[in-house]
Amino acid sequence: MSAAVVGRRTMSMLGRRLVALVPLMGIVTLATFSLIFLIPGDPAHRIAGEGASPSRWRPSDRTWVWTSRCISSSSAS
Fold this sequence. Notes:
The chain is mostly helical. The chain has 4 helices and no strands.
């Protein structure tokens, strides 16, 4: 086989792998967040630790509010 044929096959395989990577990352992300929210209790509180003060685990609430506002404003336009 010539180098051009091998190069085309390699690029074709690489392209297919990159296209397959997008839904795979979506599935992994969805599974991760689903598992986090299936755990009983507040995920931020569990991640921060048992003796953490509210100021330590509250920033995740602010992040969630900011994220939901971004999603709702982008879907409204």
